[in-house]
Amino acid sequence: WKFLVTLKTLISWFRAERKWIKPAGFDTGVKTYNSLTKFSYMYINVTRSSVTSRYSCGPTVYDHAHLGHACSYVRFDILQRILSRIFEINVIHVMVITDIDDKIIQRSLEQNISPTVLARMHEEEFKRDMQALRVLPPAVYMRVTDNIPQIVAFIKRIIGNGHAYVTSQGNVYFDTQSIGNRYGKLVNLGGIVGELGAQDKRDPRDFALWKASKPHEPHWESPWGQGRPGWHIECSTIASSVFGSQLDIHSGGIDLAFPHHENEIAQSEAYHQCEQWGNYFLHSGHLHLKGSVEKMSKSLKNYVTIKDFLKSYTANEFRLFCLLTRYRSAIDYSDASMNEARSTLSTISAFCHNAQAYMQGHLQCQPTEEGILWERLSATQSSVRKALADDFDTPKTVDAIMSLIHHGNCQLQPATKVDGQRSAAVFGAMLSYVREIMGVFGVDLLDRKEVHDSSGVLNNVVEELVHFRSKVRKFALSVEDQAPQDPHTGSEIQKRHPEPDRVPLLKDCDALRNNLAPLGVHIKDRGTNSTWEITRRGETRKD
Ligand SMILES: Nc1ncnc2c1ncn2[C@@H]1O[C@H](COP(=O)(O)OP(=O)(O)OP(=O)(O)O)[C@@H](O)[C@H]1O
Ligand SMILES: [Zn+2]
């Protein structure tokens, strides 16, 4: 039985692969999993050189945006940044805002406000949340309600092409039978019977292009009476109005594959009378609360809003959390997974800080094996590019960066007495690369807001304080008599002991360091020198 199921799946994959038409155009050098073909990873070809069109389904704006949305939009934002900054493909991104829909109408009745006001409030909130997560805005957001005449014209043409029908109740349905087995291009429809309910449909799989409005519902005039668009038609119309009959990349969460994207394909190909409208369908995996089988969702009310999340964590930490899994996999949200992201980010920031301190001469180390580090850096750069070209493998990329950091850290061991040459340049190169690649992912290691200091005042105050403390420590640690030295190396044989009357000063210096740590100021004593950095409040750093 298992064998038969596997065979059936393989056959359906094989059919999908054969039906898919490779777009003529330019190879981006990036391989991806295309939900349209399912069978294999394929190189993305774009129709214009160095430019790709991308359409994504936006939120239905009737409630707060949650971490499920954040996850999908941040993951695709990372993909887009990789395409443009690593592979030099300029992405033209269009996103729809669904501002009219059954759920919006229902919620507006419950809250006794107009659907337009409700939708605008949540649209603005969504945009603010995306900005807070550093998601690049699309070239344009397009609202459904701003595109009603275009949607009506789109439906008229589908009817004219013989792929939709009007019912006596003033509804318009897409006629799935009219496209035969082309319905089911994206998902295997075995076992899917379609939505029952409406009595005026010819086939349960048929879906609404236009819905006649009920009394007191928002509506627009149309050749079929007063009504409003169905859900799927908005995306086909808006994507076609910007990109015409061919779309390079379509993206969204995996829940949208059926029926939404399947129906978008059916409508768009019926409208354009073309064989293939969208070339690559990329779907992101769902975010679940750990232990829950259900995805986080507005309608299930099992969500954490982005605003609440950002009270405890930062945008950088959320991005790290997304980077640690592949964009297609499901992802569990929990304090443990966020702590893992936080600690990874903290290791990266600490390395950058130490590399900087080393370059400035504040962190003294034994001579480093510079050649090895240059080699490591170059190997990391090529393995990162390779991983990202392989269906945007971000976990592998983070691994490669962490391994580079590990090698850097191994050579950044503080020493009290330093002989020989310093290797500031290689640490400068590593630091720039780590910052740059994190910047590609939208992780801004230089963002001061991330460390609670938007004005820069805190930095200057801490600088002064640490400077003063260093002077006190140096004084407390200085001894009258020289410590005995090794005759061969010249280094001190025994640790120097501070004068007894200066011990309280040292204790106070330690107490100050320990007290500042929970406040987010992390001081590291390196011999008689000290360096410092501002971390998130409460975060502890391993030296
Ligand atoms: N838990 C989730 N994990 C990943 N992506 C999600 C999640 N929830 C929603 N998305 C994605 O966010 C986008 C907007 O989805 P939508 O507004 O329909 O959210 P929703 O919370 O599922 O709403 P509803 O419960 O009303 O269906 C879609 O691309 C969808 O796939
Ligand atoms: Zn859509």
TrEMBL record:
It catalyses: S-disulfanyl-L-cysteine + tRNA(Cys) + ATP = (S)-disulfanyl-L-cysteinyl-tRNA(Cys) + AMP + diphosphate; 2 L-cysteine = S-sulfanyl-L-cysteine + L-alanine; tRNA(Cys) + L-cysteine + ATP = L-cysteinyl-tRNA(Cys) + AMP + diphosphate; S-sulfanyl-L-cysteine + tRNA(Cys) + ATP = (S)-sulfanyl-L-cysteinyl-tRNA(Cys) + AMP + diphosphate. Belongs to the class-I aminoacyl-tRNA synthetase family. It comes from Sinocyclocheilus anshuiensis. Residues 479-502 are annotated as: Disordered. NCBIfam families: cysS. GO terms for biological process: cysteinyl-tRNA aminoacylation. The gene is cars2. It is found in: Mitochondrion. This is Probable cysteine--tRNA ligase, mitochondrial. Residues 493-502 have a biased composition (Basic and acidic residues). One of its GO terms (molecular function) is metal ion binding. The keyword Protein biosynthesis applies. It is an enzyme of class 6 (ligase). InterPro entries: Cys-tRNA-ligase (IPR015803), Cys-tRNA/MSH_ligase (IPR024909), Rossmann-like_a/b/a_fold (IPR014729), tRNA-synt_1_cat_dom (IPR032678), tRNAsynth_Ia_anticodon-bd (IPR009080). GO terms for cellular component: mitochondrion. It comes from the Eukaryota. Residues 52-342 form the tRNA synthetases class I catalytic domain. Keywords: Aminoacyl-tRNA synthetase, ATP-binding, Ligase, Metal-binding, Mitochondrion, Nucleotide-binding, Protein biosynthesis, Zinc. Pfam families: tRNA-synt_1e (PF01406). Its cofactor is Zn(2+). In addition to its role as an aminoacyl-tRNA synthetase, has also cysteine persulfide synthase activity. Produces reactive persulfide species such as cysteine persulfide (CysSSH) from substrate cysteine and mediate direct incorporation of CysSSH into proteins during translations, resulting in protein persulfides and polysulfides. CysSSHs behave as potent antioxidants and cellular protectants. Mitochondrial cysteine-specific aminoacyl-tRNA synthetase that catalyzes the ATP-dependent ligation of cysteine to tRNA(Cys).
